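Render this sequence as a predicted structure.
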Amino acid sequence: MVKKLPVSPLAPKKPAKPKPLAGTRLSALASGARYKGRDDVLLVELNKAARIAGVFTRSKMPSAAVDLSRAHLAATKGRVRAILVNAGNANAFTGAAGAKAAALTAQAAAQKIGCEPHDVLVASTGVIGEVLEIAPIRRAIEKADGKADWLDAARAIMTTDTFPKLASASAKFGNQAVTLTGIVKGSGMIAPDMATMLAFVFTDAALPVGVLKKLLSAANAESFNCVTVDGDTSTSDTCLLVATGAKRMSGAKIKSVDDKRLASFKKALLGLMQNLAQQVARDGEGITKLMTIEVSGAENNAAARQIALAIGNSPLVKTAIAGADANWGRIVMAVGKSGEKAVRDKLAISIGGVKVARNGKVVPGYKEASVVRHMKGNEIFIAVNVGMKSGKDAGQARIWASDLTHGYISINADYRS
């Protein structure tokens, strides 16, 4: 029996309640393959007008689901009819048997909704190294009825997550309103190098694949690629952006990501994806504190992000945060090990708005007590200026990270038990 974990202390008080989104039918199903008494399969049926873009893990050990979905996206040029997700088994490092299992589950979903197998994308999450059982997934798919809501869908894709993660937003194209809704799962093995874990974002807008790709890439860089729990990139990371086309845009078709009519949509998409990314960080395994880390003054934005991740991934920083230990020297260490350029004698650090270091040394009169008070809370803010550049040319980045506690060890020491 898989242990039920206590809900993260940083979980939202109530999950979002997105409305139904035209062009989608959701089925949350129980296969019983790994979990008992809960849904662990999600089937999302899409209308024929749907267009989809995706980003996947850069891990050199991608799962069978990632391989298959990449191939199906290329074959269909983003014209997909369904997304099938299973939780509990990553179907990664499973060789030919795993590839066959992924293909057969896609085939089962295609038969159920009446499309070709290459019209189905698949995503798997869970234990690595175990071939996916096909029969339970097939039986579950046969029960698909399209009656699930977004909360059901978010729950069905959970593994060690302690709460379902979903969000909704709206945007305008002239006088016409469109809806965006997203769900995500992720709690551990979180250091995205593309997107994050499994994330699915939907809109009823009509947008072409080329535009969707650029929209997803830009929003992903400032959301899912800015969250870390433990520094480990999953074999299964998948993020999909789906436009169902249920609401036709008035006026000329949008053909370029630079179209001014996309301004509201871009803002809504980024806000929604950052919301979901922060929910992932708030559910980091064993988490007691969420870190928001802002880096400025870097050589470029990519360097700033790398420095921020070095801080957020440092076990010494993470454990200091867990213990409310104002040991800011560990932040200095993390900046130095990042591999990015920084000017030691211009380095400045603030914690909770309190200036700790400036011009490469401790601020005169610095009193640790005020920082300790901030660190006893559950939301920690760290700002670092590395002194390489200033003004508009300076690189900057913001990431979200969890602390590191005994709880993380407990969860992962007996993850398969």
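Summary. The radius of gyration is 22 Å. The longest strand covers residues 176-185.
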